[in-house]
Design goal:
globular, five-stranded mixed beta sheet
């Protein structure tokens, strides 16, 4: 059930990932959810295509995939003339948010592929804002790991999904 609110069309994204969650090939799981007017419209949960060499890299890979989706949605909504304000993509990784904003190439991130650094360009141009969100308020958490029933219901509530009767 979608519930439209009157304060304008707001697009939000939520990102989460699970480091080396696949026991067999040690690939990490990425998950994102996008909401429009606080109703979910897009979600994805999948193993990353490469094996990440660090915790910051797997979070950065997840952010890259979500930002690409965000740019597609932003283009569509601009073409329809319905996007009313900034688009925000939330993440529970403070280090990745800082890495996106900081153009300095740190010693610890030299191994990260250059193709992933396009996020810095997008963030520096204010096309997409990245903000921190606590894990307990991140609905994309349900795409990366097995949850308790209470946590799953909490994610459904965050996405305004009516569980019915």
């Amino acid at each position: 059930m979608y519930k439209h609110k009157t304060e304008g069309v707001k697009l939000k994204g939520f990102i989460d990932s699970d480091y080396a969650g696949d026991r067999y090939n040690r690939k990490s799981m990425s998950s994102y959810v996008f909401t429009l007017c606080d109703a979910y419209i897009s979600w994805k949960s999948q193993l990353q295509h490469i094996v990440a060499l660090s915790t910051i890299e797997f979070e950065y890979i997840a952010a890259t995939e979500a930002i690409k989706e965000a740019l597609w949605f932003k283009g569509l909504l601009k073409e329809l003339s319905v996007l009313s304000n900034d688009m925000i993509v939330y993440s529970d990784s403070q280090s990745v948010i800082h890495l996106c904003k900081n153009p300095v190439f740190h010693e610890r991130t030299k191994h990260i592929d250059v193709r992933l650094h396009f996020i810095r360009d997008i963030v520096s141009k204010d096309i997409v804002r990245r903000e921190k969100i606590l894990s307990e308020y991140n609905p994309s958490d349900m795409g990366t790991k097995i949850l308790t029933l209470a946590k799953f219901r909490s994610c459904l509530t965050l996405l305004n999904i009516d569980k019915g009767k």
